[in-house]
Automatic annotation (TrEMBL):
Name of the featured protein: Chromate reductase
Segments forming domain NADPH-dependent FMN reductase-like: 4-154
InterPro entries: Flavoprotein-like_sf (IPR029039), FMN_Rdtase-like_dom (IPR005025), NAD(P)H-dep_reductase (IPR050712)
SUPFAM superfamilies named among the record's database cross-references: Flavoproteins
A GO cellular-component term linked to this record: cytosol
GO molecular function, one term: FMN binding
Entry superkingdom: Bacteria
Length: 187
């Protein structure tokens, strides 16, 4: 069987973000069973119908990466009980038809969600909002298991690096489940 292709979308643009670190840990977990890539989308402009057609090059690039993936794994922080605006902006671009002949690129894609935040909800509220949006866009959401890590400061060393010891088993369980979910839905 072919390796599944997972595209990770991190809801924070900060290079050292906890969610990026969580995504990189997931990449290590699935390295033998899936191709895992982190989407770089910091150059995607704000959604603006005045520049929608033809789409900016950055938007074309991220659409192609989404189309090539078998599954999308979101890693989102929680800002004010919601997922970040940069993630919403990206999803807005991805939710638009590519052209008159090609629909949006998220429909039918399997999706998983993880997140770590400084707050007590551990991104659970942001994840629920994200599920509402991506379900509307016809993504196939794997609701169980999800990883929500609260109080991130408890899992960070003095260099700002995640200490994965207690998080790793939960992430590993989700990674295995997501690979199986993708294989069942797509391959």
């Amino acid at each position: 069987m072919n390796k599944v292709k997972i595209l990770a979308i991190v809801g924070s643009l900060r290079k050292g973000s906890y969610n990026r670190q969580l995504a990189l840990a997931a990449k290590e977990i699935v390295k033998d069973t899936a191709d895992f890539t982190l989407l770089d989308y910091q150059d995607v402009p704000l959604m603006n119908e005045d520049i929608e057609y033809p789409a900016p090059d950055a938007v074309k690039r991220v659409r192609e990466e989404v189309k090539a993936a078998n599954g999308i794994w979101f890693f989102t922080p929680e800002y004010n009980h919601f997922f970040p605006g940069v993630l919403k902006n990206l999803i807005d671009w991805l939710s638009r038809p590519v052209s008159e002949n090609e629909p949006q690129v998220l429909a039918g894609k399997p999706a998983a969600i993880s997140g770590i935040s400084l707050g007590m909800s551990g991104t659970a509220i942001a994840q629920d909002h994200l599920v509402t949006l991506i379900s509307f866009l016809d993504m196939k959401v794997m609701n169980v298991p999800r990883v929500t890590v609260p109080n991130a400061w408890q899992y960070v060393d003095d260099q700002g690096k995640l200490i994965m010891e207690s998080i790793y088993p939960h992430l590993e369980k989700q990674a295995k489940a997501f690979v199986n979910f993708i294989q069942a839905k797509c391959l």
